[in-house]
Amino acid sequence: MGVVAKESIKGSIVSYFGVFIGFITSMLIVVPLVDPSSYGLLGILCDAATLLGSLAMMGMSASGIKYFPYFKNPEKKHNGFFYYLLVIPLVGIAIFFTLALILKWPIINYFSKNAALFGDYFYFIFPWAFFIVYQNIFATYSNVLMRIVVPRMVQEVIIRVFNMAILLLFAFKIVDIRWLVCLQVLVYGIAMTINFLYIARIDKLSLEHDNSFIPPPMRKEIASYAGYTLLASVGTSIMQKVDSFMIAGMLGLEFSGIYRIAMYMGIISEIPSRSLYAIAQPVAAEAIKKNDFQALSQLLKSVSINLMLISSAIFLLLYINVHNIFDLIPNGDKYESGKWVMVLIALAGVINTTFTFSLNILQLSKHYIYYLPFLLFLSALGISGNYFLIPVWGINGASLAKVITYCVFGLILTIFVYYKLHIHPLSWNHAKLLGIILVIVVVDQLLPVLGNHLFDGLYRTIILAVGGILAVYFCKISPDANRIADNLLAKIHKTKK
Question: What is the pTM assigned to this prediction?
Answer without folding.
Answer: 0.78
